Records
---
Amino acid sequence: MLILLQYITNPTNKHIMKKLTCLILFLSFLSFSCISENKILKTEIEKQQIENFDLAKNLNGLNWIWSVDSTCPNAGTSYFRKVFNFTPNIKRAEIYLTSDNENSVFFNGGFIGSNGEWKVTSSYEIKLLPIHETQGGVKINNILAIQVVNEGSEPGAAGLIGKLILQDKDGIIFEYPIDKTFKCSGAYADALYWKKRNFDDSKWNNAFEIAPYGTSPWGMFDLANTPASLFPEFIVPGHQKEMDLLRDMFVLHYPVPVLGTFNMQWVTESTLWPAIKPIKNNPKIVSYKDAISSRELSDEGYVSCHQHRGLGLPDGWPFPTWWQSKGIGFHFAKDSIYNTPRTLNTEGWKIKNAETTGLDEEYGWQIKLTAPNATIQSPPISVQEIVAPYIRFEWTWRDDAKVMNSINREAGASRNVARTSTSAISHAKAWTPTKPYLEWTSVLHTNYDSKRRIYFKPIQSTDGLVFTVIPLHENSYWNPEDTLTGIRINFGNTKPATVNIHAIFTAVDTRHNVNNSLYLQACDSFINWTDDKDFLTNNIHKMRKALAYAINEFQVESNKCIFTPWIGHDGRSGLLIDKNGKKTVRYGVGIGNGYWDIMPYGGKDAIATIYLYDAINKMANLETQIAKHPEWKIQNNSDGLSPAYLKRLAREIKIN
């Protein structure tokens, strides 16, 4: 060092000293720049990791869970818990969840937070215990415990949804959903020990996954992954204020779920379009795909309304109810939706080959069928047949215990290794009712006989509560000018059984003639926005069936428009006004169509025809693309509804 100093201070070496000084300054600057850039880079990486962690705070792709397999269970408290072993080197961890209704969250035995508003998600930071940490030689696990209260005195929506989000030192995110792997109990849990690690939950059941996020009854409400900063902007120079208001409106409407069939086309078309930042399991796509794919079609092809339980046809709109249409009803079990007065006794009813064993609000009228062909007969009634084209029969069936024991013994005796005798299975099926039917009397036909008889489908013990619709109008003796005076049901049983009757009531036709068109339009919108070939492959059969039903049921080929043949849907008003302004209600006539509840439409229905015209054109274009793309491996339509036929039919509808 001394030699180097002497060398530098020597006057003859001044030029070398200048160069060395410059080199030292350059290296110092370079070092400082590298340190600064590293700090900036580290800051940017940390910022990105935080952003990624925040983006993980969403409910996309998760399922609501509960302690019973129902989205509308009885009120009460349920308890959920699960033990976790986490990856080491975790630097950030949070629990992200919500529940319907109030929750209290515990982690490793300690209370960390609570929330009583299901539309608001909560996020709680947690401190993990490393997987290798031990206490007294025993490995310590992390335990998450959640208590959820379903408030109220009546059954209501209840559920828990969320996840644990972890991020390690490299920024990798790990997600642990609150799912069916959680242990749960709907019974009282020890206030002190159930949330501890060493609590024995071996007798608890696994939770039930009751509904995907985004579906009914909760819909979409978590906007964590669709903030305004990610939503498309509307730019019109000089009108930014108005454009911001328009954008805010779309942001507010974006979470709206597909509920019933009535809104599926409008919601799909108006809320799937935003070019939101790509995210895993986009909730809009996931929920809409599930909702549209789950539409129920009748055997003939009619698309169900998918509404809450009503008092019209089960696959129709919930109303008009029987009392709104001047019909009649007997509700032996409690109706919690409409609070319909219960029928508290069976006075006036006649039963044969059967006996009453109970009558309560939960199970209704309980009848033991003691001999073959047991019957029940109503007291005298007086209902115009125009408001009774259908009888709705809500009932359950349970085979007699002695008979079932005999069946089980026969099946057991016939079993070898892993095979049950087919004769025993056939024998079991023989105990179910074979040909149940309903007969009725009227003012014009005063006696029960086979001429006014409608057979209906038998049910079995495993079917649960069934809403059977019995179409009186399909019998040639049904007369809209006649008056119904009595009904009699023969259960067609061959052996003893127990029947619980929840309700029997008249029903008008509450179906809507636009359902199939709305369903097809929604399918087309979903396919266009998502380019989801799996959806197309899995739903094309239903789509074709729905279209064929609409064309055939509404006689489109012959009328070149929709003609609604259903009772009460002929387009006439249900209200007559005489020259003096006096109003007379014509019950059973003028039933709403197209979800315009006070407007009859029907008959040769212009607005329904417009919907179908659009659906036919969309299906024609879709079938054309299917034919052009054999690699999609979708079979061409073999039901006569070729693209050429559909395009021709659409042209003729437009000309007409």
---
Amino acid sequence: MTKKKIDVLREKPDPVEFKTIFDEQIIDIDSLSTKDPADALSKVESILALHAVRASQELFAKALATRGAIYKRLEQASLAIADLNKSLDLQDGTDRLLRAYTLWHLADLQGAQGSALKLSLEALSIYTDMNKLKNVTNIYTQLSRIYGRLGDFDSAIEYAQKALDYYKSSSDPDRAYALAIFASLLSGLGNAAAALPIREEARKIFELEGNIRIMLICDLNIANDHIKLKNYELAEAVLDRGYETAKSSPFGATATGFLGKKAALLHRKNEFEDAASLCRQAISDNLIKSQEHRYWLGLFETLISCEISLGNLESAKTLIDSVAQELSAEGGKETLCIDGRYTEYYEAKGEWQLAFAHQKKCDAFHERERSADTVNSLNSTQILLAIEREKHEAEMQKVRAELSEHETEVQQLRAEQSEKELATQAVHTAAQTDLLDRFRNDLRQIVREIDEPLNALKKIKEKLKELPCESVDWPKFEAQFATVHPEFKQKLVEKYPELSPAEIRMCILFRLGLKSHEVAQLTCLSERSVEDHRYQIRKKLGMKKGEDVVDYLAKV
């Protein structure tokens, strides 16, 4: 940090400048945390101590979220969850990216996969809305892992593929995570052969990035896949490679894990002496118990089986008693079925009654495990069903909205079409009325030109009288108009009660956009009379000079 920035942060700074420098520091620390989380933690704690009073709630929330993410990388889950939750509590919702960032990291730490799924989906929604494609892809990777743990492998593979489609041939470490998860899904589905090259590709990227911890996890998984395929020599080579890397790294417990995995492999190959020797070496290295409980238990389980297979029964019994005592001191933690080891021991000694008694306990242990797995499976299914229901409901609402919009458009089109037809009909009727009027006038002219009216001429006059002036069926016409503008006449009468029936009819014709001469033809009036009516209507409606009657009536 430059001296100017230090001065700005220590003294009473300009709020805008303070926020800019604060944000810059947090971004730098967040970037550093992927390579050196311990150094990043030291820096963010300094910032928190320096600005605890001076920083706004928003900035303090950002710093807490960053520290929570660093604790997560340092595998200090409880501290990470505490900071991330505090950050969420302080956030006021204005910084949506900060909320998404916090949810993203918090989802990784959730024991309940249903909670993790909800957090991830909310973060995905925010990042998608804000078009943050890189972040969206990271969430795809996270969702792939979560769905895999929930047993929804179709969704898991779908999201993994989406992430990989974004990265393509990139050497980005985020691509490596996506590859590693995709490989785990394939391996879990029984396709270890397809998973292997993908794991190797991911491992190379992590190695280039200097991410030793994840690289070692890749080696363990690669070895597991080789074991599934019975490529035992290749598996041993990978385990040796991982052990050599791990023992000179800060991850000593992982080094013990490699020894334990190799010992289990040698036991599988019936190489009991070599397997037991490796287990003792790992235990004597004292690298394990404080950090990786599962490695410690696995080593003793393998060593006990080796001792029984080698006939070292008393040594095996001592080991079993030691592990049983350790588990009891830890509150009976059932991460290892110790009764199974007692069963092996008593069977080897031929003490069948004791072996049977321990076997019953071991069966009960496994039954409890199966019950717990069943409950977890049911919970996972319920979570997935609930989420699917939410998705389905959201889709149905979208469909209903689209249908409603479509129905509105259809109704509007129908109304427009009906209005056009009505106007066309009115014009056509006006033309017919005009034709009848001209016919009547022509006949009258003929009669005038005859000097001596005959009986035929009298009959013509009588027929002329019978010609109706009103050729429009007004009740039918107004009924058709009402289907297009159902409330027009009622609103017009209620708002302007002083309008006469004839003026209301004129308003209906004007509403259709008919011109004065067309209205005159329909009503058998002169254009002058129609204009007089128009004037009276404007006056009763209280229209201003320059306002158009058609436009005015359209707003009624």
---
Amino acid sequence: MNSITNRFISLDLLPSFLPLQTLSVPSLQNVLLRIHLRQLLLLPKTPLHNTDPFVVVFVLGLIAALALANEQHDLFNQALKESEARGGKTWVVLIAGSTGWSNYRHQSSVYKAYHIAHDAGIPDERIITFFEDDLANNYENPFPGKVFNEIYVEGGNNINVYEGVVKDYIAEDASLDNLMSVLTGETPSSGSGKTLGSTSKDNVFIFYDDHGNSGIIALPTDEIFYDHHLTKVLNTLASKKMYKNLIFFMSACYSGSMFYKQELPENVYAATSAPTDASSYACLDDPTLGTYLSSCWPHGWINSLNTKGLDTDFGTIFEDSYNYAMSQPPPHTAPCQYGDLSLKNITFLEFMKNKPIHGNKKTDSSMPFVYDDTAVPQYLVPYAHAKKMYERKPTELNYAKFKAETEIRNRVDRMVNEIINQVLPTDKALYTPVCEMCDRSCPCYANCMRTGSSDHCARMCCDYSACTAADSKDEEQIECSLTLQRAFTDAIMSSDPTLGKHPYIVAAGKQWNRLCRSGVDVAKTLQAINRVCH
């Protein structure tokens, strides 16, 4: 009994009032259940009254420590259950799909959105980003290492929104495969490896900013995220129960076409910068940087949060962004909403914190907006940028760029007019520019009204856009327009990929709208598109 093992006591000597299940701290209990301590430690069966007093004190101290640990463990579990009952976490995915200095606005807005989410308490491990990362050190950047989301002011407080932004999927890693993996909770093949790890208790916020077209939105890798990809993402998120509430903001031309036929379940709310068949607008043309700093709609919702604070309800955020977009030069583009509109009652901060702060809160939506006379449709940005650069610096190089953009516009316009000529050669009004204002101030409408009705002239001369179809006739017209636009884009992409990637081909959508409202033969028009574009 003089060996070291004499200072240990057999489990047989533990008092009968301390059953083994009392030792319920998981790690300790598992050890005690699975290891035969007596064999391991060669413990003798020693009567308690003959046991060394040191051993008795040691055992009683051990028992007290285990009991205290067990109590603390129970309190921790109770607190954890209460926390889970109150709500889970929030995840944020931010995607900028474009590249190049002329598309500065898409990455700039995503960088700003990152800081807003971070300010709302979302840690980097739950913010996932996709972007090209070609602005901060771009050769055209007069402020290396910096990106701005507001007009640069000499000597002002110009905030560098690039600073601190987490980089997960950059350049070639910002691929379609990686995006699909992240949005469905699978492991990406490259990049940071972060993926959406949300559960049924978690909120998910997604912001996607880029160029779009009929049922498509782009990625930095020149790959296309189609509407059927979005359908797969939404179905997977629902089937895997990866959200409690999901809010999806998308800023792109034709962005409504990505959502208007989606069967969105409860607790999913989507807002888009444009309807099914219209362009988004670019804002904040900065003369110092020589590019547009934001698209109009994202600037509206970001400005709403900057001005009114993060504790602003989504209803007010959307109203502010809508009002800002509609305050810009005509013909404007009206943002759209889809899905569960009840989520608009939640404030941005409540959503990010994933816990109620108020009941239903409505923030005052009265807000002065500055008219931005530099705002243009996204498809005109390359042309507008080249024109302004030539006006500011009339060099041969700038003239060549302006001339190239003018030729692209003329080429696309000629192709569209030839298609119209082949399918409806007698309707001369269709060859004229689409009216920005549908009244007699527009030459097409004024000339048409000499012999036609207002309904006929509106169909022939004016633009039309819709968030959803009001009836079966609307549904047919929207589907007709989207079908022609997709076919036109695909045909040009196959014959001239460089032209196919140019934003100006989106401008053709206005003409397809008019054709479809005129009752054009879709099959005949598709044949004309193939003849003209190949």
---
Amino acid sequence: MVDRNLITKLGLSNEQIEQEVNELFTSEHTQLLEEELAKKVESLAPGTIVTGRIVTQLGNDVIVELGLKSEGMVEASEFDDPEEIVPGKEIEVLLEEMDAESGILLSKRKADRIRGWERVIENNAEGDVVKGIVSRRIKGGLLIDIGVPVFLPASQVDIRKPGDISRFIGQEIECKILKIDTDNHNIVVSRRKIIEEERYASKEKILAEIEVGQLRTGIVKNIADFGVFVDLGGLDGLLHISDLSWGRISHPSELVELDQEIECMVIGVDKDNEKISLGLKQKSESPWKSVEGRYPIGNKVTGKIVNIMNYGAFVRLEEGIEGLIHISEMSWTKRIGHPGDILTLGEDIEVQVLGDFQGNYIHLGERECSLQRRHQKLIEESPSFVVDEAMRAEMGTVAIEAARSVDYVSAGTVEFLVDKEKNFYFLEMNTRVQVEHPVTELVTGVDIVQEQLRVARGRKLRYGQDDVRLHGWAIECRINAEDPYNDFMPSTGTITTVILPTGPGVRVDTGVYSGYEVTPYYDSLISKLICYGETRGEAVLRMRRALEEYRIMGVKTNIPFHQHMMDSHRFMSGSFDTMFVEERFSMSDREGPDEVQAAILATLVAHRQGQQASQIVAPGERDTSNWKWLSRWERLSR
């Protein structure tokens, strides 16, 4: 701005003023001024980061002065903290667009991201360790904020499959930079690398110090049929099922669970192959050490039958001590073909109960659950063929009283063991909805889950005991990812094809689909197939058809086992108990047509195909009557 009054007081003409200015500012000064102005103008080109000063805030717009009497706008939402919007404060912004109508559009967030990227590149390289907060989950992994968003693939989250990676959101984690892509502004990091390095250092220390007889504390990381893998802090040790307990157990999950901390004794060390053997039962004295003093020869003892074999029966006298009754020692007077003729392990029968907050209780009949393996049920049906009306009423009364005695509310299941004389004994109560509840729903018409939700809201049961009537028969087969031809070995992999059976009386409860991955970290159950019929025979026939239609490809399943059972005379006649599958069943014993029958069937099929082929008329020799041709075509299409 020029002060004209000051010039007038000086009494100088315009020519004199220009002469004075020229004497003060040489050509050198003029050149410097022009260069600075050029730089300032160039800095206002779109795509550049400039420093501006906050002028004021108008609604959702923050006005920023950029110099050269230029102002731009930034959205207030781009400030992480509203208190940062202070007039006069200098900030860096990215000039996005210069428009005559909308003015200069700026972005603070993009400028911060670019500066953050530059700082990360300047201060870090591939292989460096960084810390950041997990911000969100995206396809294939997680985004971590280390100043800029970086990508953590799901495969790099942990050394084992981590399950639901969303649980890391909001946590600060440490990662190693695997790759920096400067062209695309991408950084890939790994948490797994750090864990592996820490475990390697810890493993070397453990191998140098570990000795047989030491007690070590670890975390259960995997449970298999044959044992448990325990993480000792850098090295996994195997706790075999035979070293878990002095007593008999069917599966390690009966004693331990995932992520449980346990103390074990080291019973074997192979440092060359980095293998550690652990024992749990070795922490206590063997019950066999003083067995001769507790059970002298000639004494009468009482025990529980725990296993029946062709050659005899095993009787448990106490935990860890079992005795064998040989088949030749079972009777002086009768010839016994199999120990099961006079001894039994019993039937596994469970009763469904419902209770509400008002003190009302009902039972929904029983379920037959004897066909099981390692205490895991495989086939369930309702009603049970061993339970009559009187026994059903008595068992139901006992189940209700058991629930009432502890003021139980919601759906629950009371399990009983039943012997050959139809005496029943309380086993346990499961305070949840069982996997096999659909068979009860089908024969009673009661939606158990719906009633459970109603009770949870404080509502009264809609049914009284007199309203419960059993109608028809329902059978459920648990479809597991297991190979019945290889001792039910779990099968893992990706399911490539799923074709579900349909039709009247057929129900499938499942959550798997084509592309679903079956992992070794969870239960092998992948679906439940339930069939209903007016009679048990009709339910079995529908189950046979449904199993034939069921197709799951990509992993092995136990569908062949269920087909075997549905065709078995023992199953049809009810000649089985809780140990039938483990002790008296083999896939190689599957009943089917012999060679003569197979030859007859093959001949009949060939004959039928020949009949159909003879009915086909060659294209050039078709009958003159279209009606005859249509009739034959319809016969072939049947």
